[in-house]
Write a structure and sequence with these properties.
This protein has 317 residues and is mainly α. Helix content is 71%, strand content 1%. Strands 1-2 form a two-stranded antiparallel ribbon. The protein is globular.
Length: 317
Amino acid sequence: MTADLGRVDAELRKAVETEDDLLTEIAAHLIKAGGKRLRPGFAIASAAVGASEAGPASHEVVLGGVSVELVHLGSLYHDDVMDEAETRRTVDSVNARWGNLKAILGGDFLLAKASEIAAGLGTEVAGLLAATIAKLCEGQVRELRNIFNVGRSEENYLGAIAGKTAALFAAATRIGGIVGGLSRADIDRLTVFGTEYGMAFQIVDDILDVVSTEEELGKPSGNDLMQGVYTLPVIRTLSGPDRDVLLPLLGRPLSKDEVERPRALVSGNGSINDSVSTARGYIDRALEALVPLPDNAGTQALRGAAHHLLGTLPTSV
């Protein structure tokens, strides 16, 4: 799969080449910065579930992974504008280097290229990717409507991450299954895996934003609290015995210095462990969806990713 992900990187760079040197530079900025390429990896692994023997992914499967990754990258450009982020993957964010207008246009360009590639893979893949982009927007709007809302419900939070994060993981596994020619039953199982994994992935990411350093994350830590995005550990702290201490510290923008006290409060009670348990529940359901599938390299790669996710948390959590 390492070789296939190398092909994904090559196709990503090729996809953003334009006649305008500046647009090419902007669109390729985060591609060159690297990344784990989890979503294209999931597409490739999902297609491999239906393979009778191990071998390189087809060109169409690689392009399916590229289309999903371009959507992910485009969403990051837009997210960084909304968050006023200064770094991403240890490099300057696009908005910090070129400004918000160019960052938005760069993100739009990446989404357009993703749609173009998906259209070449057939109407089902094109429709699925378009619907996924819509879900990402719906999830993000759901989150934005609750900025600085100390009364944000857990139901609202889970609904938002289902759209803004889980939907794209589900699209990755489903596109891999479709392009790989799997049965409808197996495609549906892979979609469940992607959805459940995506929910766990975002919860883990939100936990890390509270407990990790900027160096560990490769982006600003504590940013959710500073920006008024109250995630699962915060929501659960606000429903526990530390509510009266935490509540007066929230509901407004926080500086880097001001955010340390609420971070310590959220980190120092049971809400982090409770959130880890919730993430583990999603991972358990993701793994359950894989049980009927063939025990081959593709299934093993997906299973390994699920087991690895919770291991990304610091041992002190």
